[in-house]
């Protein structure tokens, strides 16, 4: 059955039934939030692989010295000590002096929507024509040939990313979660089964963009008023569709913007909210309760430390930088201990990039936050614990923790072997696997993804 329109023959059958029995026909279900652009991702081929004698951070806060990681059939088969057996015909890798971690997950990236080269013709991240644009989807701007994807993989060990629209709008559109692999289409990168996200924004950006044009919102109270008005419309839209699917009758008129917001109210689409100040995050939590949805994560969240207990109580993640602040007024009141303080309150702390360069060194950003937390005397911090900020917690916020984010049997083998302690400025990825396929080998120039755009460019694509 179509997920968009009731076929004419089927509609006629319902009418005949109604006329014969005198009963109002029940409408067939209409899955208006079903993905019309499904993932076509197919994992690259891999071979059974065993890494031995490495230091392993499993992403769940555990460190294993002289650790072993077994990969086969695209998934992690086992994680433990030297006693683990190897599958038949497995490739054995000596990990002495190396570290093995889950692949890094960046929950706030604009790669593909703001690709390199950064020219105006490739600036496709903000549909800044109205403050309410939930109908746009980030994936429809993603350029798979963006060289930033391979830079994030080979320099940063990033295996999964959420690509978000920009923050000019109160409702910026849908996000998409991608596997960091070369593909000809965005569907070929699309993480199978990952929920969509809705990008929302509060604070300076929307009121600056539209207030400067003499339009609403021009103030923070305008931000909230227009956002509430939009959610009120979304609830009415959802009620119409719920009634139609329960009772039948005339099918409501489709509205692509409201489809996205209905998806949020139905619990199928996750809210990722750009928000810096503590007071505004608290207001957004209250608004979510007013209209019956949940904020999954606040992004940037430089004042998260002020309301860390509130975030923990409401199961909201804080997506933060280590020390990037002060570039506008709402980012002024930051502290370097923000990430570890949020973690210490038992809230979900995440390190993110929002930048094509930062995404190449998120391990170093986590290292800075860890050092600042230890220096401040925050207890129970370690490198193994801090890796949760880079893989487990991001996976949780994206609704994919059951599939990736930790080194556990049955999970996707998104794995990085570092040439040294990944919390050192001097360490880099040596080997990177995505779904058990070796996508990067620092010692082999042929095992490095190069986009079609780069082929033929000076210094690129040379495999001699």
Q: Work out the radius of gyration.
A: 24 Å
Q: Which residues form runs of ≥5 with pLDDT under 50?
A: 1-22
Oligomer: single chain
Overall, the morphology is: globular
Fraction of residues in helices?
Answer: 25-40%
Give the averaged pLDDT, no decimals: 92
H and E order = HEEEEEEHEEEHHHEHEHEHEHHHEEE
| Number of helical segments with 4 or more residues | 11
Measured by DSSP, the beta-strand proportion falls in 15-25%
Protein model, in words:
The chain has 464 residues and is an alpha/beta fold. It is 26% helix and 20% strand. It contains 11 helices and 16 strands. Strands 1, 2, 3, 4, 5, 14, 15 and 16 form an 8-stranded mixed sheet that branches. Strands 6-7-8-9-10-11-12-13 form an 8-stranded mixed sheet. The radius of gyration is 24 Å and the shape is globular. The N terminus is likely disordered.
What is the compact description of this entry?
The chain is 26% helix and 20% strand.
List the helices and strands and how they pair.
Elements: H1 8-21, E1 49-57, E2 63-72, E3 75-80, E4 91-94, E5 99-102, E6 104-109, H2 147-156, E7 158-163, E8 171-179, E9 197-201, H3 204-211, H4 220-247, H5 256-265, E10 270-275, H6 278-291, E11 295-300, H7 308-313, E12 317-320, H8 338-344, E13 349-351, H9 362-375, H10 383-386, H11 392-397, E14 415-418, E15 429-434, E16 437-441
Parallel strand pairs: 1-4, 1-5, 6-7, 9-10, 10-11, 11-12, 12-13
Antiparallel strand pairs: 1-2, 2-3, 5-14, 7-8, 8-9, 14-15, 15-16
């Amino acid at each position: 059955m179509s997920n968009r329109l009731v076929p004419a023959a089927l509609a006629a059958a319902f009418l005949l039934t109604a006329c014969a029995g005198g009963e109002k026909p029940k409408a067939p279900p209409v899955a208006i939030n079903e993905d019309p652009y499904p993932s076509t991702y197919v994992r690259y081929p891999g071979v059974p692989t065993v890494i031995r004698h490495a230091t392993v951070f499993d992403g769940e806060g555990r460190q294993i010295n002289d650790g072993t990681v077994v990969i086969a059939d695209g998934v992690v088969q086992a994680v433990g000590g030297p006693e683990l057996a190897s599958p038949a015909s497995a490739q054995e890798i000596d990990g002495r002096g190396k570290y093995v971690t889950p692949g890094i997950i960046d929950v706030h990236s604009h790669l593909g929507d703001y690709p390199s080269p950064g020219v105006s013709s490739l600036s496709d991240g903000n549909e800044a024509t109205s403050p309410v644009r939930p109908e746009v989807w980030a994936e429809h701007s993603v350029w798979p040939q963006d060289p930033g994807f391979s830079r994030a993989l080979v320099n940063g060990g990033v295996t999964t990313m959420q690509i978000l629209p920009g923050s000019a709008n109160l409702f910026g559109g849908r996000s998409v979660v991608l596997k960091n692999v070369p593909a000809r289409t965005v569907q070929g990168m699309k993480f199978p089964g990952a929920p969509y996200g809705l990008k929302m924004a509060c604070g300076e950006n929307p009121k600056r963009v539209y207030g400067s044009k003499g339009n609403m919102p021009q103030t923070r109270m305008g931000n909230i008023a227009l956002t509430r008005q939009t959610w009120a419309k979304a609830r009415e839209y959802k009620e119409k569709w719920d009634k139609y699917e329960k009772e039948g009758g005339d099918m409501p008129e489709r509205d692509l913007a409201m489809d996205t917001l209905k998806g949020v109210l139905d619990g199928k689409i996750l809210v990722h909210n750009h928000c810096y100040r503590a007071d505004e995050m608290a207001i957004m939590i209250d608004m979510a309760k007013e209209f019956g949805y949940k904020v999954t994560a606040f992004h940037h969240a430089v004042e998260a430390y002020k309301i860390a207990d509130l975030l923990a109580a409401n199961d909201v993640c804080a997506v933060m930088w280590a020390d990037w602040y002060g570039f506008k007024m709402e980012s002024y009141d930051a502290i370097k201990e923000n990430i570890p303080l949020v973690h210490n309150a038992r809230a979900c702390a995440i390190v993110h990039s929002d930048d094509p360069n930062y995404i190449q060194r998120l391990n170093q950003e986590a290292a800075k936050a860890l050092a600042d937390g230890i220096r401040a005397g925050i207890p129970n911090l370690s490198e193994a614990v801090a890796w949760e900020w880079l893989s487990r917690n991001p996976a949780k916020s994206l609704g994919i923790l059951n599939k990736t984010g930790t080194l556990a049997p049955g999970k996707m083998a998104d794995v990085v072997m570092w040439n040294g302690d990944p919390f050192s400025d001097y360490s880099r990825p040596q080997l990177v696997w995505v779904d058990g396929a070796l996508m990067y080998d620092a010692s082999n120039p042929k095992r490095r993804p190069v986009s079609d755009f780069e082929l033929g460019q000076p210094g690129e694509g040379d495999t001699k």
